[in-house]
Amino acid sequence: MSYRHIFIIKGKVILTGQDFIIANVYAPCDTIAKQELWVCLSQFILDTRDANVCVCGDFNSVRTKEEIRGRSVVFRQLDADNFNNFIDNSFPIDLPICGTLFTWYRGDGISMSRIDRFFVSAKWCDSWPNCI
């Protein structure tokens, strides 16, 4: 399995001894390359489902039309469908963001999207229930 576009950190919380895994993602812009990444990440999440896992980063995808705005913005339904299928099939919890609707802004002040996310396992939420 290739972990291209993913940086994985495994560690232990010193005070509690709890193990954790953080996978930082920088997804490609290409639809086919993203689909390959979703397959790889789905397998990674399934393989580590009993662990404290956080998969976070720039996914270069939005889930809905409401998560993207701008002058010349093109909403790609296929990319959104593939991304949503990845999320639905992998069962990660999509943490809400606080303070803003968007995570990326172009310098024009008009173009913006929510392409950055934090997905966590159920065990992560059990271990740290107040995470946002």
UniProtKB/TrEMBL annotation:
Transmembrane segments: none annotated. Residues 43-125 form the Endonuclease/exonuclease/phosphatase domain. The keyword Cell membrane does not apply. Keywords: Endonuclease, Hydrolase, Nuclease. InterPro entries: Endo/exonu/phosph_ase_sf, Endo/exonuclease/phosphatase. One of its GO terms (molecular function) is endonuclease activity. This is Endonuclease/exonuclease/phosphatase family protein. It comes from Medicago truncatula (Barrel medic).
